[in-house]
Design a protein that fits this description.
By secondary structure, the chain is an all-alpha fold. Helix 1 runs antiparallel to helix 2. It is elongated, with a radius of gyration of 23 Å.
């Protein structure tokens, strides 16, 4: 890896880690709001605000890092759909029997 690629990878790793930490903090803050630990707008409204904050935190913690990771993934080499892994297109008799369960 070159220095530029290394710096970019470090920035992306930091962004993914920060996204997960912020998502976890949102989840904890949402549960505190649901429990009634903080008063923002009154009890029935605070619970709904807490639910929204928890859902946002789950989205930030679980879904967004996957979306960003997929967007930042290195594309496969041209002419190779498996990203460097070559698979044989021939099936052997032993391989076919394993797939069908025949012996």
């Amino acid at each position: 890896m070159s220095n530029e690629q290394d710096r970019l990878a470090k920035k992306r790793f930091f962004a993914l880690s920060a996204m997960r930490i912020v998502g976890a903090l949102f989840i904890m803050a949402g549960f505190v709001l649901i429990r009634g630990g903080w008063a923002i707008a009154g009890q029935p409204t605070d619970r709904w605000i807490g639910v929204i904050v928890v859902v946002t935190g789950v989205f930030d913690f679980a879904i967004m890092p996957r979306v960003l990771g997929r967007r930042w993934r290195t594309p496969p080499a041209p002419g190779n759909a498996f990203g460097g892994l070559r698979r044989s297109s021939r099936r052997t008799a032993a391989g076919a029997s394993r797939l069908t369960g025949a012996r």
